[in-house]
Write a structure and sequence with these properties.
This protein is mostly helical. It is built from 4 helices and 3 strands.
């Protein structure tokens, strides 16, 4: 699902400190909401909260809870390491594209 990928992306950008469920859900809502496919923020928040709770229960899970309501990616998990590499590769590809200056010359 698109929400799952966004949760991973947001937590990958957050780093070691992690983010609260409310901030994660706000980022996911902003990334997935559109004019033609509107979604409710509370629905996204409930999904993010349940998804994180469900996926942080075991020792080798993708997410880990740092303190109440704050989650981060579990760096010891191999799946997490693979996702981090994929996100870094996507960022590097986006940065490599040269930006053409298409502004008009005044002189």
């Amino acid at each position: 699902m698109q929400y799952d990928k966004e949760i991973l992306r947001v937590l990958a950008e957050a780093g070691n400190e992690g983010l609260s469920v409310r901030k994660i859900s706000r980022h996911v809502y902003n990334a997935c909401n559109s004019l033609f496919n509107p979604i409710e923020q509370e629905e996204v928040h409930r999904y993010v909260q349940l998804y994180l709770l469900k996926n942080c229960k075991t020792v080798g899970s993708i997410f880990e809870k740092t303190r109440k309501g704050v989650y981060r990616l579990n760096k010891a998990n191999q799946t997490t390491q693979r996702h981090l590499l994929l996100f870094r590769d996507e960022e590097e590809i986006a940065e490599e594209k040269p930006i053409k200056d298409q502004s008009l010359s005044l002189f």
